Write a sequence for this structure.
């Protein structure tokens, strides 16, 4: 029989705890809705005793979320438990999550007590919380560093007192997979009332093992997995739920589990969390990183074109991502170039692949990444030198105050020199408006990203932009110690790409 895996998300509690700022109520609601939509079983909305804002937000969320069960965290204190109850009592389904440390280092150094007192407290507080609900989770904080006999005793007492879920956290991300497996199987074998509870695991990523440990624990008998979206959380973070979910999906033939997750919502949820929490994803992040489904080397691109399964174990469409991407660089081969031309609708006989590929390599060596419009330009723009920039910057002056910014820019446009000025809400807005005034293209700025290299007063600013022109997207990049100049160069770079594209269209019409 297949076993249901319960996904418990703590992005709004353990995840938020690690942010440099607090999420506001609106932001938490947006994340909670995304989690509910994704099919998360239990959402830990906060730690209501920690602040009036956390309490109010938990209460607000309890009026909105209907499908996922809500949960609030409490220390082993009556007032904490009362606050969780008060904040969640209107929820359709709620759980009280109580925790207390059980490892010697925490008991002696942090709590300054002993094991017997800890056990008494756990029993008392679980019984206390049972007056509010029969859905009680108890977490043995730092369980992975708790001697196994003590852990077995604590778990047995907690279940007898009325806990229905027992969580075994690897609070400090210390455990190795095999050791975690042994802890979970020992609990299953030695605690005689273990069948009366659901065993849960909560892993941290200090040694990079959070996801591996969670999967191992499932194989040992754990039924609930706790983690966060994108793995955000204390220190090196928590177990990334999207990674566990997709690992189980990818290897489903070997595993007999099912769950409630709508895989298609994973990418969107990850984006929402990354944006609201202001934590950009590293490009090589598993499942949701920018490069997770993009292929760079010529050999890999060739394999992918022949059969996607050669280098992709997972179809990006499953997580709600539309495409596999090829990075066109000097490492790409003819197959990738032909493939992109085909995607754009060009037939083989319409261009000379040898000539195109030779020019592609030369341009890629110079530019780094090549986009579709560069390929078109190389293939069809025989009259236009692809290295020539039709637009170039001659002069600029930016004045910016608290109320208004004024940009004056002089551009060389082919053989003409044009000078214009415009005002804007900020300097980038003013720059953008003045350039549009000069070139007179109907474009829309859809991405503007400023990054700095080496983070000192001497750092170089890099501006990456995307412009939409008709149905196509054009990229631009600008580098300068002066970030205003970097912004102007990025826009000029993109409009030069648009200009080349327009030349091709003209040439093709002739
Ligand atoms: O890491 C941990 O031990 C926790 C508990 C409160 C569950 O976050
Ligand atoms: Zn934690």
């Amino acid at each position: 029989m297949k076993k249901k895996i319960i996904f418990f998300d703590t992005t709004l509690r353990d995840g938020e705890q690690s942010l440099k700022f607090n999420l506001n109520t609106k932001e938490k609601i947006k994340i909670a809705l995304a989690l509910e939509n994704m099919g998360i079983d239990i959402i830990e909305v906060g730690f209501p005793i920690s602040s009036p804002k956390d309490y109010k937000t938990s209460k607000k969320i309890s009026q909105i979320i209907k499908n996922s069960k809500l949960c609030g965290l409490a220390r082993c204190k009556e007032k904490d438990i009362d606050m969780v109850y008060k904040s969640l009592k209107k929820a359709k389904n709620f759980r009280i999550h109580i925790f207390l440390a059980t490892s010697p280092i925490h008991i002696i150094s942090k709590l300054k007590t002993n094991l017997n007192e800890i056990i008494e407290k756990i029993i008392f507080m679980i019984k206390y919380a049972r007056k509010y609900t029969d859905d009680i989770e108890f977490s043995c904080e730092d369980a992975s560093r708790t001697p196994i006999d003590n852990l077995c005793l604590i778990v047995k007492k907690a279940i007898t007192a009325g806990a229905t879920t027992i969580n075994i956290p690897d609070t400090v991300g210390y455990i190795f997979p095999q050791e975690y497996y042994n802890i979970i199987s020992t609990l299953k074998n030695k605690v005689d009332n273990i069948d009366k509870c659901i065993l849960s695991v909560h892993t941290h990523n200090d040694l990079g093992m959070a996801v591996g440990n969670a999967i191992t624990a499932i194989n040992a008998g754990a039924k609930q997995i706790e983690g966060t979206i994108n793995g955000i959380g204390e220190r090196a973070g928590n177990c990334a739920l999207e990674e566990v979910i997709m690992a189980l999906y990818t290897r489903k033939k070997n595993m007999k589990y099912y769950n409630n997750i709508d895989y298609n919502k994973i990418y969107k949820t990850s984006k929402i969390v990354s944006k609201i929490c202001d934590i950009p994803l590293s490009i090589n992040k598993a499942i949701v990183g920018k490069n997770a489904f993009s292929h760079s080397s010529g050999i890999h691109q060739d394999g992918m074109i022949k059969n996607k399964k050669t280098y992709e174990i997972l179809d990006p469409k499953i997580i709600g991502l539309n495409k596999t991407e090829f990075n066109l660089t000097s490492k790409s081969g003819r197959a990738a170039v032909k493939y992109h031309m085909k995607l754009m609708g060009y037939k083989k006989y319409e261009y000379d692949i040898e000539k195109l590929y030779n020019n592609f390599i030369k341009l890629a060596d110079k530019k780094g990444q090549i986009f579709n419009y560069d390929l078109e330009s190389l293939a069809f723009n025989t009259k236009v030198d692809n290295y020539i920039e039709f637009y170039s910057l001659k002069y600029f002056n930016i004045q910016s105050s608290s109320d208004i910014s004024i940009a004056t820019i002089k551009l060389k446009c082919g053989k003409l020199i044009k000078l214009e000025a415009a005002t804007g809400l900020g300097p980038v807005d003013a720059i953008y408006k003045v350039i549009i005034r000069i070139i007179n293209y109907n474009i829309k700025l859809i991405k503007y990203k400023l990054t700095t290299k080496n983070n000192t007063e001497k750092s170089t600013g890099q501006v990456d932009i995307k412009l939409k022109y008709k149905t196509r997207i054009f990229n631009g990049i600008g580098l300068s110690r002066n970030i205003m100049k970097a912004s102007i160069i990025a826009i000029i770079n993109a409009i030069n790409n648009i200009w080349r594209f327009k030349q091709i269209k003209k040439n093709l019409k002739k």
About this structure: The chain has three domains: 3-277, 294-312+324-367, 391-509.
